[in-house]
Design goal:
Blueprint (H helix, E strand, L loop, with lengths): L17 H19 L5 H27 L1 H9 L9 H13 L4 H28 L13 H17 L2 H28 L16 H12 L7 H19 L1 H5 L11 H16 L4 H31 L8
Helix pairs in contact: 1-2, 1-4, 1-11, 1-12, 2-3, 2-4, 4-5, 4-6, 5-6, 6-7, 6-8, 7-8, 8-9, 8-11, 9-11, 11-12
Pfam families: SLAC1
Protein name: SLAC1 anion channel family protein
Main location: membrane
Length: 322
């Protein structure tokens, strides 16, 4: 009879940084809501500092994992499914940077430079892994492959405040072209090769993120919500959100795991896009869409925060993944 596995930091998944993405993304959504509506700006500020605090805790915990269990980190970074989640580390920093722009510029700038440099490194690492892993098969493809792409698209959100604009254009160009390149690969996996495992089902929400973040970055780089690209990206984000809602029944049946945080940042990004489009005169419909999406994102973050805190307290989330 074998002993049951014990909770250990060795089993802390790199995807845990999606928690920061969700909280930071929600902060950015409330920051934009405070501009469009009479909403207290303190909501976004509290969430931004909370995201920074969680980021610090997770970085410390992952550093302990790397020091004590380097083989576990190496295996995770080379894993055909989990390697895409390594990008959540720099994205967490970049999103927190964007959330802190209206509240504390110096901290935002420090996070942005660290996040952008790490994002470039991780993007190259992930692309190299995908292109050289002879064991990679179609079953290893899942919507989380978009995470490194989204990371590049996130860079301009605060990048236009902290660095020459050409840097933001570099990341935007890489992000949008790789999104379009990966899109048929991921759709083929979803449409042709059967459903993804239940634990990864929440990653379907990530489909909302690339067009939503690309639309926000496009406007940050000087585009308009009313120009053709802005309208197209906003429409695709809205369609992907509706398609996600159509999967709600199946998604509710998925067991709780940290990938459930995949719901939060895409919803928050969509809320930012809709609220910003409404504020810039794109019509009342986007105001309603932004309000509903913001409420959903807020509800998910609160519910998942409670469930995740309980999971870490009991050690449930520090056990080997099935």
């Amino acid at each position: 009879m074998t002993d049951s596995p014990r909770p250990s930091v060795a089993h802390l998944p790199v995807g845990a940084f999606a928690i920061v993405m969700g909280i930071g993304g929600l902060s950015a959504a409330w920051n934009h809501a405070a501009v469009a509506w009479p909403v207290p700006s303190a909501v976004g500020a509290v969430l931004a500092w909370a995201a920074l605090a969680v980021l610090g805790v997770l970085l410390a915990a992952y550093a302990v994992k790397a020091a004590r269990h380097p083989q576990a980190v190496a295996a995770e970074w080379r894993h055909p499914i989990r390697t895409a989640f390594t990008a959540t580390i720099p994205i967490a920093a970049l999103i927190t940077s964007a959330a802190l722009v209206p509240h504390h510029g110096p901290t935002s700038a420090a996070l942005w430079w660290a996040g952008a440099a790490t994002m470039l490194t991780v993007s190259v690492w992930v692309i190299r892994t995908w292109s050289t892993d002879a064991q990679l098969e179609h079953v290893h493809v899942h919507p989380a492959w978009f995470i490194p792409v989204v990371g590049n698209l996130v860079v301009p959100l605060a990048g236009v405040e902290h660095a020459p604009v050409d840097i933001s254009w570099f990341f935007f160009g890489v992000g949008i072209l790789y999104w379009l390149g990966l899109l048929p690969i991921v759709l083929t996996r979803l449409f042709v090769y059967g459903v993804i495992p239940p634990r990864l089902a929440p990653t379907l929400a990530i489909m909302v993120a690339p067009p939503a973040v690309a639309a926000i970055s496009w406007v940050r780089l000087g585009g308009q919500w009313s120009d053709p690209l802005g309208r197209i990206l906003l429409a695709v984000a809205l369609f992907n959100l509706v398609a996600l809602v159509a999967h709600a029944g199946a998604l509710r049946a998925a067991p709780f795991a940290l990938p459930a945080w995949a719901y939060t940042f895409p919803l928050a990004a969509a809320a930012v896009a809709f609220v910003s489009a409404f504020h810039d005169g794109s019509g009342a419909f986007y105001g309603w869409a932004g309000g509903v999406t913001l409420a959903l994102a807020s509800g998910f973050v609160v519910a998942l925060a409670v469930r995740t805190a309980r999971g870490f307290a009991t050690g449930e989330l520090l056990l080997p993944e099935p």
